[in-house]
Give the backbone structure.
Amino acid sequence: MSLEESLDQIKDSVIAHMNDDHSDANLVYVKALAGLTDTLSAEMTDFDQQGISLAAKGPDGVSEVRVAFLEPLAKAEDIRPALIKLLKYAREQL
């Protein structure tokens, strides 16, 4: 099974988990790494080996943004540590 296929198998659950339990992390990603400091909320919409896609809701509407992982995923199991590492990095940027 390819990495893309492996990621597709976990995509829905990872996105749901991030949006339901870690909406604060999504907001930090957008504010710190996409430079949208006036964002009010953010939802993860997708991810792949290279990074995450988010819908950032701000005063002027919704912007779609892309944030790259610090290192591309080598296997599907890398998604959790990659998101944690990215969050730590993002918090350092604020």
Observations:
- The longest strand covers residues 51-58.
